[in-house]
Amino acid sequence: ILRLYEDGTLAKIIQEQVFENLTNQINQATEILDNLKAEYDNFTDNVKIVPYKSISVTIANSNMPSEETFRQIKEMGIGITLCPMVNIESYTATSMSLMSKDDVKNFISYSKGKGIDVTMIKPHLGINWSDGTYRPNINPSDYAVFLQNWKSVLLHYAQICQEENIPVLCIG
Asked: What is the pTM of this model?
């Protein structure tokens, strides 16, 4: 087709259209990137970086991690984010059962005795004390009761954080 027009008119038209389309796409991409950068900057301006490095350790009832686990954590030179299980009986349950305060404090004391700080407590909900619970499926039959119970759980762990000098309580 390009040969039909020896003066190159069609080729020039196609070239101009391609160039115009590319320019528009580049401008749109630049605008999107500028918007994303502005959102990122706004987000990072409001984020406080926690100066702790830790690894999550889940405990349920009186179950303790192995000595090998503690050895590896100590070797890495990091702290522990303690994830004590909070038991619910089903995905629709509103009531919750906690580990005993003594079991949680014993874990913290044991960790400290191994030279490993607990830098955060992050309670985990689980059915039948299982950390394998798929939490997005939790759908309590009464949200008001569930949230009131969750508030009690968080206040319970906030008190332990305060008593044990643990700097962070993760509210999730």
From this structure: 0.70
Alpha-carbon gap, residue 63 to 10, rounded angstroms: 78
Quick check: helix, strand or coil at residue 56?
strand
CB-based contacts of 69, cutoff 8 Å, min separation 6: 57
Q: Check: CB of residue 73 under 8 Å from CB of residue 115.
A: no
Write the Ramachandran bin of 84: left for phi over 0, alpha for psi from -120 to 50, otherwise beta: beta
Distance CA 26, CA 24 (A): 5
Answer for the pair 114, 70: CB distance below 8 angstroms, yes or no: yes
Q: State which residues of the chain have pLDDT below 50.
A: 1-2
Q: Strand 79-88 to strand 54-59: parallel, antiparallel, or no bridges (unpaired)?
A: parallel
pLDDT tens digit sequence for 5-51: 556 666 677 778 888 888 889 999 999 999 888 888 887 777 777 77
Residue with tokens 């030279």: 115
Assign 105 to helix, strand or coil.
helix
